[in-house]
């Protein structure tokens, strides 16, 4: 693990550290003297950086999305930290651990993946089991399944986040299917495991989390549909009706047209899965909102994903309340 | 249990049975001869009935919503059964078992209510436990809680349906709180038990399921708010913040303004409860839709509550398919 | 061509003709005498039919969706024609010409298909040409492409209607691409020819036009996506970016999420094609609305597809106007 | 006033009366015997009528929208009244008072029009006064202004209804302008008097209330805009800014795009007038809904214009309540 | 009244004045020297302030929402005024007049309250009069009723604004009830007086206008419902139907679900009151928008509450017009 | 053509050039020294400018929207160019070519106008031809028709843009009417030529493109309606039905209420014209979006008019892809 992280920096400090280059630009001071302006970052944040001398020679081979090793001085300028770069060079691949530069799940991805495989194996229907395990054990897929985030912003927006979301959903599906005996657990597990496989290609997540051009043009639902079509084509005898059911579960999982589902859920398990997926995503979004310091003791930051802020229940029940409250008559 | 039920009737049959009067009207034949037209029913359906003689004397004291004992002859007329009434009189209260006239839950209400009380007792927070048990053991409430349906049409629309829905929700809340450790089970159980208490007064359900005038003007959310305000007023020292939280959970449980919630869920448990309540209602609506014969082997009847029809999964997976399918090329 | 058609029937007439059975039911008269009630039809309409004797023996092997030969008498009853069936038997396959029973395009399908192939051959891009011709010359597809309607109700709802719509679109695309030189005609022709191929399976159209169960669960966009994926897989070297573009053109052609497109058009040709497809469909819907006698000389019948009625321009410009007009002061 | 009205008819009665022909059709009995079927009506309702003999000769010159004099016998058939026509002839113009055939305002139209003129004269701004009086004293307009209804269904849907609505609005505008001193009463009166002048041509109301073809194509806002443009063109020196203001008041008075206003109110008086117009229309719609017998003592009939039903306040406050209420526990 | 107000300040001026602290923060200059940054304000605006020396000792006991006495120098920096603080100390309660720090109504609150009481006494129905006067004369309520604003931003957003709004509504209700004789003035006055009582607790308005946490979780409709329930509970014999009516009037007064009314108005007076409340709020919002200098002579500033800008009618009618106009051809 | 344009400027350069004044303000430096701040621009962009001395005497007669001649020095300050003004004076009218200051069409307006007249002359219907040519040859109109932009931002937002849009639409109408023989080309050409005539007055475009006050209050649909009403009034015998049709085509051309059309298209040509107008506007918006450098090789800038960004098809098909793509695994 790299040291220090951006979040560790304080003013009046000289450091040597690795960063990812988010932006690089030559600028002029008012006096017309050129200098280099860089945005450097890691998984804990970004720091605005400037290099006043020698940057012409030292940064020729450095561009956006490169990893660099930097020696510099941290200073406080207008209430914000700034880095004055003294020395800089491109980092070598072996010096870099990618997980230092993108936020990642607190869970162990290998353990989670083993759990996921166990869920796949627990599927009773042989066709569905074969389909799910075929995909999960495809090396081209599993490597990325262990890395992918579940979203760019909305929820589980960190490396391993997709896996965390899906394993959570499998657990939720299992207990809910226990509660409602009419539910087919095999279908719920199948759609839980496959419903976001398209995100492996819709998102890119090697430097920062973003969308690929293909992802923007097609979306993960259409992308995973192709993955599943090919996987089923490799299983001779896969019943065509079951294929239709699996396809319907995938394309309807957003639950509404305006969220990109070309069909509304018309199978009981499709409806239930939509609820569970939505609930788990919202739970993660609430968790993220509450983890953010909003400057208001009673309330989380405003969450764009949820279109509202959430009460900090524990604080509210214990009082005293927010500054606005303090001002109440007799308060 | 009464015999026969409307659903047991066939043509060319003479019967003696009890019914509920849904409509009563004097009409004239084309020849100008007056006769009595009645709509008679029980929990299994209605039958159009006519009485040609003696009705002036026998039906003077009978009006809509009365129970009657009838002797008559069942006939098939234009493909529909009709009842020719020969004798009719008002039924005595002791002759009538209300559950013969309204559909009711298949579960035992006393057992369900005991289960509900056990959920109430399992609440750890002493204030919430006191609040919930105070309401559940209020005789004026418990008698009706065991009878009330959960809705007029949308879901659990039968006697005992509300109780069935709430007990189911408590179970669901318990396992979901087990899955997400950050959830406060006490709050989930409290809102599950109280969230529809207003329906005891919003709906009327002694003859047919409908809305009271008060229910239409106020709605169950406002009605139960008053019940809870009064119950909390009787518990000295109930923390005001906790009261606010309970009120928020109640008023936000429909999840959206357009469904009559004056506030969106802004507490984590409020959001989760909205999902669970919605899911359980939809599950019941799907169940009801699939129980309806639609004349199409692959599909349920169109469900107004769900705004769509649902696939009969088992039939579809086993084939052969609907008549429309049969017509496919090569089919 | 069969004679007579339903639209040819008048009262007081004895006929012998072929029909399709839409419904079959045994009923009782008021006197309790059973009789057979049938709905019989062809592409020009339906007629309610009854058989009073001998139906037990003659109709044992006849069920809904069968073709029958009937001898009977047409009568006017309560302002509607009715058929009293005297003799009935199942029709032999060789006695039936399907086009007598479903409305069909006035254009020659073989000529239209030749035109379509010519459009396919005119595509300059070799990959797209290979893709389009591969699909058009697939026998399993071409046979049905010549038959399929474009919709159940909305527009071109008759046999051959899909082909008529697509050929029209190709012509429109050609002239519009001539008008806007920045447009890529190859892409427009490709999406025009393939955009509704999924309807070959989404709809069923051997007896009446309806949806298959698969069609309801997946929709034609998802269905044709699979057709195209398989067709591309058979063309070695097909550029992956071009594949993405073709997929995007297909999935975005409904133009909006609420019409089932999981992505909005983000390529210039995708946007233009959406307009052309929408325009051609609406033109056909207006044509159909105006062809319907509405009983109002100035106005078409209300069109559900267009959510309005349309002015009969020629009539309005020549006057005199509708009855409502006649009532105008001084009119 | 004609006697009897449709609402006065009872079974077993022979009458001679004038009616408006709404429909006329020759039909056949089951036995093939032709008869004449007519829909006859006046402002109180319609009655289905049949003529069995002599209709060929007596009704040759009679068609829809004609007034007729009829001798016939009223009978009760299947719970509905029917008229057996014995003699029929076209009515002479002098025998007909139009107000017998369309519902009309209870107010005296001449008195109301005098009141309207007085409001026009009370306008202080000379340009606006000249504009308003010029229109109100135009004979082609005033004759129809005294007759026109305010709408086909929504509110004041009877002869003289438009005048009643406008005079009421002028009064309301006057008191509201008294309440808010910043309001310009002249503008409010001007828009009140002119805002629905286009309805004189949008609606037709000589036989039944309906829309003219022009009215459907243009709507009253566009139609009255032309009236006002022409009237202003006749007033030399009319300030162009004031003309723009008047035009804006007219085109924005529906308050929202979806109700056909091409601009939202952006002048204070435009906003206020929209509220007053909307309020007065809704008041009339509530009045009409409550005047309708709904069969429920607590509630009005469902109002399509208001998309809800309204409480009968007096009845509810006095109790006892609706039948549904009666069934409440302890009720 | 304090002097000077923020709006009185100009550059190059030494002042001694009282302010409210909106923010307080220690910052560093580029050279690393700490200084104090304060946001100071009163009811006329805010000024950014800095203190360069002695702030460690002088501001230890000062925090956000405290009142302070300040000696300092006003300077113009980058086109904005700034205050260099020389001396600062906490103000004593007796030195502060709260109305200097929050904008307030231009009307006399005591006079307005007397007017409100007179409206309450004018209610004829004894139950409603008792209810309204009971609440208005409750000391815990009246003190705050004289202070509360009607909203944070939308309309009447100043101390005493709620009272001004309500008294205005009572007057409006009286004249409108005079115009429509079918209206029950007692109900209109009751709902006018009580409809925003919940805002006394929903908003906080001792330092700045904001929402309390309770207010955000419950909203004023739910809050005032509890106030009214308790007040009615203290009036023995209050008719239950009348209570339902009052509750309905309160909960429906926002008129639409999306504005937080859990029920639509279903009583005539509820519908009318919604219109009057909405009209009076919009009038105030227009007034506020026009009072704002927008830099455009023809137009008000854009109003967020109204989602548009409003024409300055007087200016427009007198010309010359906005700069954009000037540029018109021939202009 | 003026030199240099703003887009030609670089740092460290002394220039003499003409500009349009967008803003003019006296400010103080921190030291309290006054200076002049100007926003100067031409059709290629704006530059922030300061004048440190002599501005009191040189700029007294200069105000916003004046043209000026400036001598000054261009400098780079904080990454942005700034102009230090040394000498400034008002420009003389003969020194200014307006087209240097507003962006304009690349097409020749006289040629385009001749083409437009030819389209007008090609109209077969004599009434429509007379109407169209009467308007096109009205000098007050033609001068401005050659200048007006088609919109402020959405599409064709440059001088001559309206003409370019309309001529394009006439061409499109002609080929589409060729494709659908049921279309009346005369009507399509008439509405194409007249549909935006109101924009001549709705927009102002002598200095910058904006809306006139009249334009904001009425909108171009209402404005051109008046133009057409007056033009028709000058053609004796113009058939009233044809006038209604023309008016309907104009008022319905936005296609939907929410875009300011008070009527939906109810004539076939009205519907088609709405599609063509919308398509041509969107094509221009896509063209503008793609012409904007977004910093992403695969994607255009986000287009507010289209609410999305568009793929750069050529770049995407040729690869390599955007930076985000580069980061794909194995990429």
List the helices and strands and how they pair.
The structure is a homohexamer of 331-residue chains.
Chain A (H helix, E strand, L loop, with lengths): L12 E16 L5 E9 L2 E7 L3 H4 L8 E11 L2 E11 L18 H13 L4 H11 L2 H7 L15 H19 L5 H10 L4 H4 E2 L5 E2 L1 H21 L6 H12 L16 H24 L21 H6 L4 H4 L5
Describe the protein.
- 6 copies of one chain form a homohexamer.
- Chain A has helices at residues 55-58, 109-121, 126-136, 139-145, 161-179, 185-194, 199-202, 213-233, 240-251, 268-291, 313-318, 323-326, and strands at 13-28, 34-42, 45-51, 67-77, 80-90, 203-204, 210-211.
- Chain A is an alpha+beta fold and 331 residues long.
- A 5-stranded mixed beta barrel of chain A has the order 1-2-3-5-4.
- In chain A, helix 6 packs across helix 10 (268-291).
- The N and C termini of chain A lie far apart (49 Å).
- Mean pLDDT of chain A is 89; it is low at 322-331.
- Chain A binds chain B through residues 168, 171-172, 175-176, 178-180, 182, 184, 239, 241-242, 245, 264, 266-269, 271-272, 275, 278-279, 282-283, 286-287, 290, 308-311, 313, 316-317, 319, and chain B through 168, 171-172, 175-176, 178-180, 182, 184, 239, 241-242, 245, 264, 266-269, 271-272, 275, 278-279, 282-283, 286-287, 290, 308-311, 313, 316-317, 319.
């Amino acid at each position: 693990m790299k040291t220090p992280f951006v979040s560790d920096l304080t003013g009046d400090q000289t450091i040597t550290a690795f960063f990812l280059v988010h932006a690089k630009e030559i600028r002029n001071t008012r006096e017309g003297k050129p200098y280099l302006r860089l945005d450097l970052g890691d998984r804990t944040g970004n720091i605005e950086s400037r290099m006043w001398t020698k940057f012409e020679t030292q940064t020729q081979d450095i561009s956006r999305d490169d990893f660099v090793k930097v020696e510099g001085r941290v200073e406080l300028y207008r209430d914000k930290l700034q880095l004055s770069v003294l020395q800089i060079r491109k980092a070598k691949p072996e010096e870099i651990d990618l997980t230092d530069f993108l936020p990642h799940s607190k869970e162990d991805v290998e353990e989670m993946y083993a759990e996921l495989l166990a869920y796949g194996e627990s599927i009773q229907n042989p066709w569905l089991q074969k389909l799910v395990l075929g995909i999960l054990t495809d090396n081209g897929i599993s490597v990325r399944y262990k890395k992918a985030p579940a979203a760019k912003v909305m929820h589980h927006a960190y490396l391993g986040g997709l896996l965390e979301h899906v394993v959570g959903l499998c657990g939720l599906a299992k207990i809910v299917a226990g509660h409602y005996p009419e539910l087919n657990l095999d279908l719920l597990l199948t759609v839980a495991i496959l419903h976001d496989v398209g995100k492996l290609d819709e998102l890119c997540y090697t430097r920062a989390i973003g969308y690929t051009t293909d992802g923007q043009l097609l979306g993960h639902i259409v992308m995973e549909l192709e993955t599943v079509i090919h996987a089923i084509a490799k299983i001779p005898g896969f019943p065509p009706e079951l294929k239709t059911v699996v396809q319907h579960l995938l394309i309807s999982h957003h639950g509404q047209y305006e969220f990109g589902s070309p069909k509304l859920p018309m199978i009981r398990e499709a409806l239930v899965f939509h609820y569970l997926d939505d609930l788990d995503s919202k739970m993660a979004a609430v968790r993220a909102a509450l983890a953010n310091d909003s400057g208001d003791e009673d309330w989380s930051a405003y969450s764009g994903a949820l279109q509202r802020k959430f009460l900090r229940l524990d604080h509210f029940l214990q009082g005293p309340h927010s500054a606005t409250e303090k001002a109440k008559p007799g308060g």
